[in-house]
Structure formats: structure tokens, C-alpha cells
């Protein structure tokens, strides 16, 4: 069972651990954000195109008998 901890001690430990984190620079953050938006755009464009193509092909196959 966990022992009780003083809230002040806990906050000191949290602060000490936070100081150990390597935070990204503003430039790295901006570049990563732009890359995520670009990849999301390309994925959306790809899936839109694939959906349109499959819709066209299925429409051609199903309308053959008419």
C-alpha cells in the first residue's frame, strides 16, 4: 500500500521531474504542426480520390445489366 505523501513534497518532485523534460523549440513545434496538417491533407485527398474511383467503378459494374 502506498504511503501518504506531503503535498508540498509531491509538488517539489513534480517540479524536479518537469525540469528534466527536453521541450521542443518553437521552430520544431511549428515544423511538426505543419507536417501534421500536410499529411492530413494528403491523406484526405487520397481517400477522397479512392472513394470517388471506387464509387465510379461500382456504379459501372452495377449498371451493366440495364
Automatic annotation (TrEMBL):
Subcellular location per the Swiss-Prot or TrEMBL entry: Cell membrane; Membrane
TM regions (residue ranges): 34-62
InterPro entries: SecE_bac (IPR005807), SecE_sf (IPR038379), Translocase_SecE/Sec61-g (IPR001901)
Alphabetically ordered keywords of this record: Cell membrane, Membrane, Protein transport, Translocation, Transmembrane, Transmembrane helix, Transport
Chief place where the protein resides: membrane
Membrane-related topology note: Single-pass membrane protein
Recorded superkingdom: Bacteria
Alphabetical list of HAMAP family matching this protein: SecE
Assembly notes: Component of the Sec protein translocase complex. Heterotrimer consisting of SecY, SecE and SecG subunits. The heterotrimers can form oligomers, although 1 heterotrimer is thought to be able to translocate proteins. Interacts with the ribosome. Interacts with SecDF, and other proteins may be involved. Interacts with SecA.
Family that this chain belongs to: Belongs to the SecE/SEC61-gamma family.
Its biological purpose: Essential subunit of the Sec protein translocation channel SecYEG. Clamps together the 2 halves of SecY. May contact the channel plug during translocation.
Name by which UniProt lists this protein: Protein translocase subunit SecE
Organism: Rhizobium aquaticum
UniProt gene name: secE
Amino acid at each position: 500500500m502506498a504511503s501518504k505523501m506531503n503535498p508540498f513534497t509531491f509538488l517539489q518532485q513534480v517540479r524536479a521531474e518537469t525540469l528534466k523534460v527536453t521541450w521542443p523549440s518553437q521552430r520544431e513545434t511549428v515544423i511538426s504542426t505543419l507536417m501534421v496538417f500536410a499529411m492530413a491533407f494528403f491523406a484526405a485527398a487520397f481517400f477522397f480520390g479512392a472513394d470517388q474511383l471506387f464509387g465510379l467503378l461500382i456504379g459501372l459494374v452495377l449498371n451493366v445489366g440495364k
